[in-house]
Design brief:
The longest helix is centred in the N-terminal third of the chain and has 18 residues. The protein is an alpha+beta fold and 421 residues long. Helix content is 40%, strand content 21%. The chain folds into two domains: 244 residues, 2-Layer Sandwich (BirA Bifunctional Protein, domain 2), CATH 3.30.930.10; 97 residues, 3-Layer(aba) Sandwich (Rossmann fold).
């Protein structure tokens, strides 16, 4: 038997119904906020991610799926979506618009150790705002993200905020942090000892217990950001208040990608353990210029769909599942009438299945049960002669004879009652 590759998972029914619910909610909410969908390739030139994400990040150094194609050009399966969206924004001259509000849904790839909620092929819903530097845009986009979580019924979450400063003030903090960490180097994990010189901010974000203890009294970046960055951060918080969004400040929070500036954030849930972020993002004011475009601002986020699906399956949210109908037919005449009813139900966008004549009534009822049908419609010679149909609620076991001509309306009424419960 040929099995799937480790870390590359199949998503099967009924979980796909949950994923469709999540994706549909995102499209519905994002449209209201003026966002349009963009679809970018899953493979890009490696230099896009090396320049965009940063050479010293864990993603570029050891997590990317990179190989040479037949033209001996280095290509990479996308590890995240922002760099690809920015590349498309520049290449297709979307920068000529006053601003671009774009969202994407799709798979990403990173060579990581598979664990609960983290896989080598994983899926993200992301959104990017390009061309707006106003702090209101940060808050408005965060408001959209929170509206999405509300839409899918997930309310046990926390918005954590931080500011990483800008190219003018962050180097000062970086040197101060390097000095602090160098004095405690031997107490850090091997990865963080290496990061002191290459990417010291990532040490603050390390989940190793000994690194957390060492960095507990490390300098806070919020004490070193310049006046412009402080003003920007205060205005973001002010706009969040106007949008009615609650938040907490987490000065230890940094992002694993080098392009972030100023506002950074995570949406977390205690139900996910130490890897508790279900969405994250921030501002990236230099990325478009770095990738060859104009010097315009950007702000965006990505939602981890696997982790979000885990939370919803564990009962933190609710989904709407369509009640199914199954038609049981006994005899060719009943089958003819059953197909007519099946067509009518489907034309009204109702989920309906029909039993096959090679199975008896017992086999068809068993099939209805396995398919999770809420209602079963039973047709036989007796029902056909009286122009009736047996209507059975599979959950309660209650059944009754109803007029065959009004069956579609009856099904619609019963489904409406189920949805109210």
């Amino acid at each position: 038997m040929i099995t799937s590759i480790r870390g590359f998972n199949d998503i099967l029914p009924p979980e796909t119904t949950l994923w469709q619910h999540i994706e549909g909610a995102a499209r519905e909410v994002f449209k209201v906020y003026g966002f349009s969908e963009i679809r970018v390739p899953v493979m890009e030139k490696t230099e896009l991610f090396a320049k965009g994400i940063g050479d010293t990040t864990d993603i570029v150094e050891k997590e990317m799926y990179t190989f040479s194609d037949r033209n001996n050009e280095s290509v990479t399966l996308r590890p995240e979506g922002t760099a690809s969206v920015v590349r498309a924004y520049i290449e297709h001259r979307l920068c000529n618009m006053p601003c671009a509000k774009l969202y994407y849904i799709g798979p990403m790839f990173r060579y990581e150790r598979p664990q609960k909620g983290r896989y080598r092929q994983f899926h993200q819903i992301g959104a990017e705002v390009l061309g707006i530097s106003d702090p209101m845009s940060d808050a408005e986009t965060l408001d959209m993200l929170l509206a999405f979580f509300k839409k899918i019924g997930l309310d046990d979450i926390e918005l954590q905020l931080n500011s990483l400063g800008c190219k003018n003030c962050r180097p000062v903090y970086r040197e101060k942090l390097k000095q602090f960490l160098s004095e405690k180097k031997e107490q850090l994990c091997d990865n963080c000892q290496r990061r002191i010189d290459t990417n010291p901010l990532r040490v603050i974000d390390c989940k190793s217990r000994k690194c957390v203890e060492v960095t507990d009294d490390a300098p806070s970046i919020l004490d070193y950001i310049c006046n412009e960055c402080k003003t920007h951060f205060e205005e973001v918080k002010g706009y969040l208040y106007l949008f009615g969004a609650g938040y907490s400040i987490n000065p230890r929070m940094v992002r694993g990608l080098d392009y972030y500036t100023r506002t950074t954030f995570e949406i977390t849930s205690d139900k996910l353990g130490s890897q508790n972020a279900v969405a994250a993002g921030g501002r990236y004011d230099g990325l478009v210029r770095e990738l060859g475009g104009p010097d315009v601002s950007g702000f965006g986020f990505a939602i981890g769909m696997e982790r979000l699906a885990m939370l919803l399956k564990e009962g933190s949210g609710s989904t709407s599942h369509e009640a199914g109908i199954f038609i049981v037919c006994i005899g060719k005449e009943a089958e003819t009438e059953g197909i007519r009813i099946l067509k009518e139900l489907r034309e009204r966008s109702l989920r309906a299945e029909i039993g096959y004549h090679d199975k008896g009534i017992k086999g068809q009822m068993k099939m209805a049960d396995k398919l999770g049908a809420r209602f079963t419609l039973i047709l036989g010679d007796d029902e056909i002669s009286k122009r009736e149909i047996t209507f059975k609620d599979m959950k309660t076991g209650v059944q009754e004879k109803v007029d065959i001509e009004g069956i579609a309306e009856r099904v619609i009424d019963e489904i409406a009652q189920v949805k109210k419960v």
